[in-house]
Fold this protein.
Amino acid sequence: MTHNDELLDRKQAAIFLKVSDRTLDRISDLPRIRIGERRICFRRSDLTAYLDRRTETRAAA
């Protein structure tokens, strides 16, 4: 497993994205990994890809 494929728990993922746990739960297009009955994890690479998709650039005027 590479550093980018590292699994983060909900709290770590929220910190990585700089959002609250509740906001993290509301992001519907963020891939989640269910481990067992209750544990939810996130791949660091998926979080980075999510940020890349959400990045906006402004064209020079």
User: Anything to note?
Assistant: Strands lie at 7-9, 33-35, 39-43.
